Amino acid sequence: MKNPEFDSLVPEIAFDRRSFLVSTLATGFTLAAGPVMAQTAIVTDTAGLTAGEIQVTTGNGAMPAYRAQPAAAANPAVILVVHEIFGVHEYIKDICRRLAKLGYLAIAPELYARHGDVSQLKSVQDALALAAKAPDAQVMSDLDACVAWAKANGGDTARLGITGFCRGGRTVWLYAAHQPALKAGVSWYGHIEGTPSANMPRYPLDVAAELKAPVLGLYGEKDQGISVADVQEMRAALAKAGSKSEIHLYPDAPHAFHADYRPSYRKEPAEDGWRRMLAWFKANGV
Questions:
Q1: Is the pLDDT of residue 13 over 50?
Q2: What pTM was computed for the model?
Q3: Is residue 235 part of a domain?
Q4: CA–CA separation, 149 vs 190, rounded Å?
Q5: In the prediction, which pLDDT does 23 show?
Q6: Residue range 148-169: average pLDDT?
Q7: Active-site residue list
């Protein structure tokens, strides 16, 4: 989709525009995430909402995405929701509905649709392998396409925010360095550093001095994949850059502590993080 007013803010990034392998979103929860904890999984209804699957025009075809927004609101603020390695499944859709209940237009694009079908994944290793196929440059472009869709469909992209979980949390930091129209981001346990590759050449620590919008990072001290030392290094890099970004570290929280459908869920830090996220968006004009 071409949108001259918005496209003028989008840096030119080159990547391989491969075609989409899947055209619809998965239903239910992704099997690769493990057994669903039905007793803790939050279910948000669609009463008062316009919610469901949409198709977002990109440079090489239509990308499936989930959208939820208040049915009666005019020009709602826009929040991009970036999924974990498990794609846009029921948890991510519910996040969109929760935000819509609060007045936002929330969009979650299926960023792996060109590379494979998340509904067929059976293990975390499968999910990691699929996620690794999506180049960061392509992800940035696809998120920009979602913003263009929101603008063309009544969203107020002058009040643009982004939040993401796990791999999506990493993406939040990168998008804050990429998109000058962004007002604020919230990263839930997004990896801070790692081994560069062709598809993922840089990590949040590499872009700490380039952030165009403040990011709130929500992390757990018990995370097996993101060390406290990593968090402290990111804090130091943000301070050195004079960034308004902040990181909050939960002492007893593991990775994926917000994922209410998984055994990793921790109710208190999840709910506290949600409150902090909403306050961060409000304080930064989203």
A1: no
A2: 0.93
A3: yes
A4: 26
A5: 80
A6: 98
A7: 166, 223, 255
